[in-house]
Amino acid sequence: MKKLFKLILNTIPRPILIRLSYLARPILALLLKGSKFTDPIDGKSFRMFLPYGYGTQRNNVLSPSTLSLERHRLLWLYLLNETDFFTSKEKKKVLHFAPEQAFYKLFRNQKNLEYTTTDLFSPLADVKADICNLPFQDNQYDIILCNHVLEHIPDDTKAMQELFRVLKPNGMAILQIPQDLSRATTFSDDTIVDQKERAKIFGQYDHVRIYGRDYFDKLRSIGFTVIEEDYTNKISLELVEKYCLAKGEIIPVCFKK
Q1: CATH number for the 71-255 domain, one of 3.30.70.640, 3.40.50.150, 3.90.10.10, 3.40.50.2300?
Q2: Which GO terms describe its biological process (predicted)?
Q3: Is the dihedral angle over the CA atoms 228, 254, 155, 122 positive or is it negative?
Q4: In this predicted model, what pLDDT tens digit does every residue of 97-116 receive, in sequence order?
Q5: Which pTM does this prediction carry?
Q6: Is there a contact between 128 and 184 (Cβ–Cβ < 8 Å)?
């Protein structure tokens, strides 16, 4: 199964994968029904989660029902338990980059959210836009969600500046990225253009860097106030394992003062 999933991820374009996954989800959820692992997004339980990874495959990480990964389930729990994202009585304007299926319908149906999605290629995007040149006004959004996008962007400084520009004062941006916390500094090399070489070095064929611990300071240099939220330390180890979270993953919670 691991080899099959790896082949699918590396050969089928992401927009097509998104469309095909809508057909596969109910079948996978039925076949893998059980009680060992639970997806906190929809509360459904399974005997196993699916493997995932463009290079090295990780076991028990892809939820059969929502197709959420570790980072999605962690973000869901943080938004649910630590913010008023779902409960605010005041309507919030939300901008969501590269919207994930795990969240798309749920966020769209939230009555307290004015929800806009954006991406260059995703079929789920309301607005087709370049993150480095956004067609939005200054200080427009209360909340920005940008999950594993910046590692794809050659000029991530410009992208961060645009995110800061369109965020309202006192607004919150959650800017998750794949990160190697053992690295002090981010590694990039523009001369690596071969997709197989990129996959080997950066972990995925369309990634252009590996972020280190300096990622948070780069966000601060743009103007954000950054909280390095190690939310798995606020959750019992039993639930970390039950929800198939990545222990020690940091959520970059950013504010514009």
Answers
A1: 3.40.50.150
A2: methylation
A3: positive
A4: 999 999 999 999 999 999 99
A5: 0.88
A6: no
